[in-house]
């Protein structure tokens, strides 16, 4: 499963949550610059989009265009080839192709897949989709059905956050 989930309690006026890629979990904190409902709406749209298109994204944190930050949020990019989805984690740049990133118009900002970044192979998780995947939602969780794996997928390639 590919799931994004909010925990019920807030931490320092921010939403705490986690993303699950099969058996791999990573926690995140989402700023309240965007409402919890808006985040969840984007997650569902992002998962529905990848069922029919070759690229999508899930935004887990967005804090606008404050000048004290070099980036404006955190995304998980989704790229599909046949029934496989490659998932990449990264910072959302403030501008893409000279245009200011917009949470409300996120579909226009999905970058093309790049196999190499900073001279090394891009770090990615790979999951497999069933022929007709379903997106499921409950109160604080959105999931995209995937074919099950016996162990969590290891990221492939260069991972700049681990040195």
Structural class: mainly beta
Measured between the Cα atoms of the first and last residue, the distance is 29 Å
Assembly state of the chains shown: single chain
Strand order of the largest sheet: 3-2-1-13-12
CATH third-tier fold name: Secreted effector protein pipB2 fold
Pfam families: CdiI_N (PF18228)
Protein name: CdiI C-terminal domain-containing protein
Organism: Bathymodiolus thermophilus thioautotrophic gill symbiont
InterPro entries: CDI_immunity_sf (IPR053755), CdiI_C (IPR040509)
Written account of the structure:
The chain is mostly beta strands. The protein has 1 helix and 13 strands; from the N terminus they run E-E-E-H-E-E-E-E-E-E-E-E-E-E. The C terminus is likely disordered. The protein has one domain: Secreted effector protein pipB2 fold, CATH 3.30.2450.
List the helices and strands and how they pair.
Blueprint: E1 2-11, E2 14-21, E3 24-30, H1 36-52, E4 55-62, E5 71-81, E6 84-93, E7 95-96, E8 99-100, E9 116-117, E10 120-121, E11 125-128, E12 135-138, E13 141-144
InterPro entries: CDI_immunity_sf, CdiI_C
Protein name: CdiI C-terminal domain-containing protein
Pfam families: CdiI_N (PF18228)
